[in-house]
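Task 17 of the worksheet. Students: predict the tertiary structure of the chain below and write it out as structure tokens. Keep your answer in the requested format; marks are given for formatting as well as content.
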Amino acid sequence: MGSYNFILQVKDVSMHFNGLQAISRLSFHVEEGQIFSIIGPNGAGKTTAINLITGIYTPVEGEIYFQDQALSRKKPYQMARMGIARTFQNIQVFQNLTVRENVMVGMHTQTRSEFLRCLIHTPLVRKEEKIIQHRTDEVLEFLNLHPKADLLAAGLPFGDQKKIEIARTLATKPTLLLLDEPVAGLNLQETQEMSRAILKIREMGVTIILVEHDMNLIMGISDYITVLNYGEKIAEGTPREIQNNPKVIEAYLGEEL
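Model answer:
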């Protein structure tokens, strides 16, 4: 990309748990509009990195900046209001709610109405309800979930439940979306559909950080890749550069990338 407009900067970040070093002096930056992938073997620190960026963990050293704002003291709900959204390795879907209700739940950080206003259903509450309903319909249509909007999430295929989680994040209109293994457990057709959805999300102007083990997906849609091993960055570059990097090949024990 010609413009070096960094939406996210990770600077010398470290994290440890009970003496175990999970992340060691990790640094990278993400350009606005990129699909930026983080890869590495199991236990490399990929999800820990996402948890640090989204406020689940606080780094013991270093700092993370989103649009030049330091994140280390921000709570996850504050980050959501700033425009940062994420999915999780394990599906976080309310099984006893409909598809529509699952998406609407994710928009609570975007509302201002307090309990008393909701109780008496003030004009502000009614206005916010209309906004939520409209935005929910938009994202369900975008991800081809609208025909299933009123079905319970529990009765839907695994692939659709993955899409519900992404729909919930999109409802908040994020500028930065972190996807933690979005195609894990999906079949080939579902993986291809998810790949197309991720590219469409980027076309909307959303910057994406992607953690995934599916190398065909990573190499097919990523603009830039950082490789972790035992909590340390061992390589970074374009997909072609990563495929030919000896350190990366060694870390994956000779697996074809």
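Marker's comment: Confidence is low (pLDDT under 50) at residues 113-120. The longest strand covers residues 6-17.
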